[in-house]
Amino acid sequence: MSVSPEEAGLCGCWQFLAVWREQKKMRRGQVVESLAEYSFYATSAAPQQYSAEQLLQLIRGHWSAIENGAHYRRDVSLGEDASQISGRTRAYVMATLRNLVLGLFELQKHRGHTRAPSFPAWRRRLTNPEKIALLTRALR
């Protein structure tokens, strides 16, 4: 079935993309789960603007930046991958809290309110009353 971007409610998009993705989850060097699925993307790039290979590289670059940027920081600084929290809702809440804390650090850095060179250094320097005050100001 063919659907235009306008029919899907995405005005301004020129094309939809479907990418077949295969993923293997490993534990201790052994494959414990294999997943295969289509991922769908929408783009405002004209069909003639990029080749299929270029679009694939753009998508890979996007996910690489996420994996090597946000995910790396959440795992290395906050031990996300080692977390044993089970249950979708609890894991979602913890991921949201981790994002909040990293966002607060970036905000403090942007506003010039910290001289800490990294997130772990910033986190170690904050006292508990400072942490509470920071959260209170952020929620206003």
Describe this structure in words.
- The mean pLDDT is 85.
- The chain is 49% helix and 19% strand.
- The protein has helices spanning 52-78, 88-110, 119-125, 128-138; strands spanning 15-27, 30-43.
- Strand 1 (15-27) and strand 2 (30-43) form a beta hairpin.
- It is built from 4 helices and 2 strands; from the N terminus they run ββαααα.
- By secondary structure, the chain is α+β, with helices and mostly antiparallel strands.
- It folds into 2 domains: 1-53, no CATH class; 63-140, no CATH class.
- It is extended, with a radius of gyration of 20 Å.
- The protein has a two-stranded antiparallel sheet.
Secondary-structure blueprint of this entry?
Layout: E1 15-27, E2 30-43, H1 52-78, H2 88-110, H3 119-125, H4 128-138
Antiparallel strand pairs: 1-2
Quickly describe the structure.
The chain has 140 residues and is of the alpha+beta class. It is built from four helices and two strands, in the order ββαααα.
Q: Count up the helices.
A: 4
**Proportion of beta-strand residues:** 15-25%
What Rg do the Cα atoms give?
20 Å
Distance between the termini: 48 Å
User: Quaternary arrangement of the chains shown?
Assistant: single chain
Total number of distinct structural domains: 2
Percentage of residues assigned to helices: 40-55%
Mean pLDDT: 85
Query: Could you give the count of β-strands?
Result: 2
| Major β-sheet annotation | 2 strands, antiparallel
Q: Extract low-pLDDT stretches.
A: none
The gross shape turns out to be extended
User: What would you call the structural class?
Assistant: alpha+beta
Order of helices and strands: EEHHHH
Give the strand order, joined by hyphens, for the main sheet: 1-2
